[in-house]
Amino acid sequence: MRLSAPTGGPDVDLDAVDLFDARTYSDGDPHAAWRAMREHAPVHRQTLPDGRSFASVTRHADVSAVLRDHTRFTSRRGTLLSILGGADPAGDLMMAASDPPTHTALREPLGRALSFAALRSRHPDVRAVVRRLIAPLALEGAWDVAERGLGFPMEFTGALMGLPESDWPELARLTTQAVAPEDPLFGAEAGHGALVAAHHELFEYFAELAHRRDDRDDLVGFLKRMDVGGRRVRVEEVVYNCYSLLLGANVTTPHAVSATVQAFVEHPGEYARLTGSDRQTATAVEEGLRWASPANHFMRYATVDTELSGRPVRAGEAVVAWLGSANRDERVFADPYRFDVARNPNRHVAFGFGPHYCVGAPLARIALRMLFGELVRLVERFEAAGPVTHLRSNFVAGIRSLPVRAVLRPGAADELKGEADAATPAR
Ligand code: HEM
């Protein structure tokens, strides 16, 4: 997402707003459109040239209502605009594309495996990933947070899932391609072909793991042995949920990191307020999540004729909940376009709301708190060091390149240098 606040005025031609086009987020002004929609068209409809259509909700209350209520708004027909109008082959197999009770049966055991308590033993691994990520700060003039951050969740999720380290770079690339197939990063293949190719490779990868006879002691092994409401988990369920876990982690977390660092570059006064206390860092991380809203939307289908903000919604309609808009709703957030590291309360919906609330939120929070705790301890301030480029996607509000220079605190360079040397294998 190119912008974090509207640049245009309040007069927006809502008939001309195109929320489907990925370029709206890389080159346009979605915040101006969302603000006008929240004010004048809380249920807004768009029809694509091929006749497919969807309704959009932009207010925090409506976004929460749609995500919370699986009886009125189902996830089984797909939850992303990229598959609008088609059937979702993952329906009833993948947590994210199922409703209770199927969803609950899949979610309960996985939720336990990914809880704060279960992840406590993983803290040293995550800390090591954080240290590796920031070690180059001591060595390089400019640090491309976005480029380096792409591999950040892959490292801790890859380790948790027991995936071989040599596969991580390719898996990180494929997951980004799956959510931003229109990005020029994917070259000649860009577009629907890139999406299909990425899905195909990821599913093949996980199908091979799911079928392999082994007794692995990691998250994939846990999934393969999982009891789903009194029965053994199915192979397809293992494949889809491995895919979903990796995608969920890889395509969102890096952008929470880069958008927060970018906010620190643009609002040095806010960064200077941070003293490094755990509580203060945790509060700042939540503001970074609200600011970034890395998952831009999630979709549902209405199961009945109903209403949102007093406007009718018809049974069968696709309803898209724009999280990026809900997180700037002036009805809920005072001064919503202000980045405030001490914002409290902060009822952001960056992790969603209701039964599908991000199952990876504890892992993401642990990693982000550790990362920003370390950065505040070592870095006095961040400065821009080159042009910022943005991901072209209607789903992920992402940054592709964000070169920054870190001005280190006294002693930090030596500490980081020691870390970088230790990470370099001896020849
Ligand atoms: C900053 C990081 C993250 C953000 C912003 C984020 C955002 C979200 C959101 C908004 C949802 C709700 C989807 C819906 O309502 O349909 C969700 C669900 C999910 N996320 Fe995350 N996520 C993050 C990190 C992670 C991580 C680290 C993992 C994996 C370990 C993960 C795996 C999942 C899965 C599997 C679901 C589906 C849960 C369900 O359907 O019950 N996410 N995420």
UniProtKB/TrEMBL annotation:
Example GO BP: cholesterol catabolic process
Ranges that cross the membrane: none
GO molecular function terms listed in the Swiss-Prot or TrEMBL record: cholest-4-en-3-one 26-monooxygenase activity; heme binding; iron ion binding; steroid hydroxylase activity
Keyword Iron among record annotations: yes
Keywords of the record: Heme, Iron, Metal-binding, Monooxygenase, Oxidoreductase
Source organism, top-level taxon: Bacteria
A Pfam match: p450
Family of the protein in this entry: Belongs to the cytochrome P450 family.
Protein name: Cytochrome P450
Gene source species: Actinosynnema mirum (strain ATCC 29888 / DSM 43827 / JCM 3225 / NBRC 14064 / NCIMB 13271 / NRRL B-12336 / IMRU 3971 / 101)
